[in-house]
Amino acid sequence: MADRIFKRSQSAVLGKPDFEVSTLEELEAKLLVGMEQLERGEGIPGEECFRRAKEQVGKARGK
């Protein structure tokens, strides 16, 4: 129950996350999918990734 409340509070602060996981198996499966996408060249460029992260931090801080 506490974990669910924490996840909801984080979603409200940071906006909807790209994905959520409930189990270790689900996390491992999503990580494998992500690694396969990177190997195929379907990843997000580093600059874009950092820009998105910076925007989310700014929103969380109210900037």
Tell me what the structure shows:
The chain is mostly helical and 63 residues long. The chain has one domain. The chain is built from 3 helices and no strands. The protein has helices spanning 2-14, 24-39, 46-61. The longest helix has 16 residues, at 24-39. It is flat and about 35 Å long. It starts with a helix and ends with a helix. The mean pLDDT is 77.
Secondary structure elements and their pairing?
Layout: H1 2-14, H2 24-39, H3 46-61
Quick recap of the structure?
With 63 residues, the protein is mostly helical.
Primary descriptors:
63 residues; mainly alpha; flat
Helical content band: over 70%
Number of domains: 1
Mean pLDDT: 77
Helices, by number, come to 3
Distance separating the two termini: 31 Å
Approximate strand percentage: under 5%
Tally of DSSP β-strands: 0
